[in-house]
Amino acid sequence: MADRDYTAEEMMTVAAARQLANGTVCFVGIGLPSAAANLARLTHAPDVVLIYESGTIGTRPDVLPLSIGDGELAETADSVVSVPEMFRYWLQGGRVDIGFLGAAQVDRFGNINTTVIGDYKRPKVRLPGAGGAPEIATSCGEVFIMLRHGKRALVDRLDFISSVGFLTGGDARERLGLGGRGPTRIITDLGILEPDPVSREFTLTMLHPGTDVDRVRGETGWPLKVAARLAETPPPSSAELTALRELKARTARAHGAAA
Hints:
This protein has helices at residues 8-17, 32-42, 71-75, 83-91, 133-139, 172-175, 213-218, 238-255; strands at 25-28, 49-51, 56-57, 79-80, 98-102, 105-106, 112-113, 116-118, 123-126, 142-146, 183-187, 191-195, 202-207, 225-232. By secondary structure, it is α/β, with parallel strands linked by helices. Strand 6 and strand 7 form a beta hairpin. The two termini are 21 Å apart.
């Protein structure tokens, strides 16, 4: 995207933000999902209700939080509840529309790994862990997953399943008795994938400007299927880019480093 006035990551963040409708109750993960969710709040969805794992409800941070314990979340929230209440009453009670999660690895059925790379007992890399993501993945109305596209991230087989998507595909999720619709979007810096309604295998449905199907397939760890009607993501508007860049700049100034 060298000839464009936005980066691949900005395109991904804008595309992800657009998935959130105004008034949606969204359980937000730290990192890429947090940037997208707050961009939605600052643009087309001012009444989106953002919930973080620490118990903050309806938070409107001026800068992106460093962690779920960032004081910015509590200071700008409509309410702060205990973590047990957050999970037991709000999440498991079916009061959250969308869970917005990041991932180190995701497979063709939307299962997520945030635990280890390699063998669990002797891992090559030990990741931060799942936190509340397993409960978010099984209790929200639906789940969006956001990560940078690459063969190391979109893999044929996970090293460890931290949070379940559609397990082995088909009706495996329903047979296990899990709630919600499961993952309905994987948003990357190359495009958007959605699950096939029968097999539940994630399929490329939308390409971001400046990329092509061959590149996306080459950066995917399984034989990626492509929708018959493949759409192109509309490029970011000037308003979306301005809001995102101002949010990043405020965050960088507040934390003393690039966001």
